Amino acid sequence: MNSDIAAIDNPVxxxxxGPHAQLGRRxxxxxxxxxxxxxxxxxxxxxxxxxxxxxxxxLGSGGFxxxxxxxxxxxxxxxxxxxxxxxxxxxxxxxxxxxxxxxPGAAVVDLGPDDVPEMLDLVARxxxxxxxxxxxxxxxxxxxxxxxxxxxxxGERLRPPGWTExxxxxxxxxxxxxxxxGRLVLALAERVLSRGERPFLHVADANSGAIALYERLGFETxxxxxFRGYRTP
Length: 233
Hints:
By secondary structure, the protein is an alpha+beta fold. It is built from 5 helices and 11 strands, in the order αβββαβββαβββαβαβ. Helix 4 links the parallel strand 9 (163-171) and strand 10 (198-204).
């Protein structure tokens, strides 16, 4: 298993420079995902004035710069949009997959482009975080259907070398408490581990229920992060 821990220090940049290069656009050391895929932007962890200028040119005047967990602070003429405390959690190296969470229940199914309208509807009701019409192009997305309706999903997002981020974990309000999220996260973790990579994820500190679930499944907190967004001048 080749998973250098340094690769997840700046996961957006590592993803856009590697597996997701075709889903983004770049100018100098600045990069961002294509519209509809994700809003995340990438810069070096210690960008200089030229890097910030390149990102501003990429996004255009008044553009949204979602800096994710990059701690760099932009020039003073960039307007702050949001700031959220959270944590990055990782699957411990060599930790076995505990399938006890995979209790019998509705089948886990692969989701694809034809499922996007339902995925967007579920995101609107469950509010797991940013998710656009092309986000499913970032990796594998799995779902659970009950009587034909999509009630839960989770998928792969950032892909720094040796790692895959699990994201968009959500369950419709009427279907919560039935173990859907745990089954989906474990199913994705199994796929990631089978590729010789390690799963990791990000979660807001205020989401204590999700943190408890991820810890029960086997994830450990790696580092505290602050999610920030800005508007370009």
